[in-house]
Amino acid sequence: MDLLNNLALGFSTALTFQNLIYCFLGCLLGTLIGILPGLGPIATIAMLLPATYALPPIAALIMLAGIYYGAQYGGSTTAILLNIPGETSSVVTAIDGYQMARRGRAGVALFTAGMGSFFAGCVATFILAAFAAPLSQLAFKFGPAEYFSLMVLGLIGAVVLASGSLIKAIGMIILGLLMGLVGTDVNSGVSRYAFDVPELSDGIGFVSIAMGVFGFAEIMMNLEQKEKRESFLNKVTTLIPSWNDVKRMTPSILRGTAIGSVLGILPGGGAALAAFGAYSVEKKTSKHSAEFGQGAIEGVAGPESANNAAAQTSFIPLLTLGIPPNAVMALMVGAMTIHNIQPGPQVMTSNPALFWGLIASMWIGNLMLILLNLPLIGMWVQILKIPYRFLYPAILVFCCIGVYTVNNTVFDVYITATFGIIGYLFFKLGCEPAPLLLGFVLGPMMEENFRRALLLSRGDFSTFITRPLSLGLLVAAALMVVIVALPAIKQGREKVFVEDQ
Amino acid sequence: MKIRNQQDFAAGFMYIVVGLFFASLATGYQMGTAAKMGPGYFPFCLGMLLAAIGLVVLLSAITKKAAEVKLKKWDLKSVIWITGAVVLYGVLLTTMGFFVALITLVFVSASASHEFKWKGTIVNALILLIFTYLAFVVGLKLQFPLWPFFLNN
């Protein structure tokens, strides 16, 4: 009954005219961002953060949330039509989605992605609403040792399900952790690794690293490849799938939703992880597994549902435990802090209108997105017809503007340029940048919790193993490493996951 | 000893260098004890860990079982053009203002493409200029130095 009351409160908050406008704006922006390669939800949210100062907190969060899962929808459109994943989690969709497009089934693929995402979004929002309360009870059992172990689990989880060499990915994580430590140490006030540069005293900006390593480096790599972008936009014919298609996609959607909902909750989980996991499951359980890689509809339905479900449930650790599970959520934490809201277990009790309003707006947002995307596909793809030689200067412009507005200093622009070169270096050395980013976000928090845990245990390292919850998390992390070391899965992982070449 | 996997060898080498760099700088900060950690403790541990991982990656690149992977060629032209365009934008933004910086950015970065065309780039630059001005400066009220320094009083 409480749940219904809370939902009523939530809907009444979310359905105000102002909040609806911001929800729509967020979804629209998010879809555009998702479609535009190189500019991800991270950069957009970073750019819009200062603009949200003026908005009331609920509206700001609703808009930012709309951008986030709007980007999921938009990213799949470019992935299917042009084999350009608009953002990381669409990489998996591109594998079979693009193949479907080449066979003239782009319309069906787009429809599948949309419906799968919508269904998953609804279910995941419901899970969020129903289980938010019990999860926040769990939050009180988490001391610093548990937080630390949870972050270890999250980081290992992200590595293990990524492609490429496991050990190099762990190296990237640690590199990210180290970069996160640049700046003034919170505990002691000592300035670390800043070399007396005043702009570094707050640490390296996340947006700088993200845009440099992903945006700029990506452009450099694309230029070097000089590839012609084919488009099958003429072949977007019917949107309606056949009855056979529907029969095949339904179980995939259900499985994808389940996987995405679970993985989204884990820190270090998130949309990309969920998408990849769903693809592997679909491939293993499908009767048509030979079709995968050639345009199997399950290969689009599963991952798309998973990444949307994960996008929704990734709010759970944020709202209930205060831990941002991925880079985008970390920015949401920033947004909440700006509005003087401390994310954590107490948000539910101290600010129920905000909490339930956000949840209600997620469902509304999903509805808006399906209405935006399906009929307007024709319009979206006009943007995609822009030749790359015009597109990438535009990407650069947006990135440079975005980076500058974070701190209003050009120093950030220089840092981003440096990370562009570094990102290019990583690509040449076969090192993946994504684990680095996750390590960067979690680094300072890990150190703080590590410190606190040892302070509480008076220097006793066994505290991480003697506390049951912490031990459980560390064991899960170890298990994940073991699973990946098994050659069978390792071989499957390399075949399945195709990151940019 | 043949370097079979050049990529991993270089990557491992990079990890070792970076790890040792962070660790050695960390010794300059107070270490403290486990119970009362100083600022140097965590970075030192991480730096050494990274160096150790680098060593493992490096060694794995020269074992007989390593896959033969050559280092990919570098396309310095793209790197320099794009990086240069961005740095130029940074320099110009504070001296010559937003409009000049943006136009320069578009032209310099577009020149890096082998498909560069003057007319298209001019149109592109103008569209971007108008759009970003309306969206970011007017719409979102973000602060930018718009005009060159000698036009400000």
Description:
The complex is a heterodimer of chains A (501) and B (153). By secondary structure, chain A is mainly alpha-helical. Chain A contains 22 helices and 2 strands. In chain A, helix 2 (17-35) runs parallel beside helix 4 (57-82), helix 3 (41-48) packs antiparallel against helix 4 (57-82) and helix 6 runs parallel beside helix 12. The N and C termini of chain A lie far apart (52 Å). Residues 228-236 of chain A have low confidence and may be disordered. Chain B has 5 helices and no strands. In chain B, helix 1 runs antiparallel to helix 2 (41-62), helix 3 (76-95) runs antiparallel to helix 4 (98-110) and helix 4 runs antiparallel to helix 5 (118-139). The longest helix of chain B is centred in the middle third of the chain and has 22 residues, at 41-62. Chain B starts with 5 loop residues before the first helix and ends in a 14-residue tail after the last helix. The chains are: A mainly alpha (501), B mainly alpha (153). Chains A and B meet through helix 8, helix 9, helix 17, helix 18 and helix 19 of A and helix 1, helix 2, helix 3, helix 4 and helix 5 of B.
Low-pLDDT ranges of chain B: none
Distance between the termini of chain B: 67 Å
The number of distinct helices of chain B, counting runs of at least 4 residues, comes to: 5
* Largest sheet, strands/sense/barrel of chain B: none
Distance between the termini of chain A: 52 Å
| Radius of gyration of chain A, taken over Cα atoms and rounded to an integer in Å | 22 Å
What is the overall silhouette of chain A? globular
Helix and strand pattern of chain B? HHHHH
Greatest contact between two chains: A-B, 63 and 72 residues
What's the helical proportion of residues of chain A? over 70%
Low-pLDDT windows of residues of chain A: 228-236
- Name the structural class of chain B: mainly alpha
What is the number of strand segments of chain B? Answer: 0
Find the structural class of chain A using helix and strand composition. mainly alpha
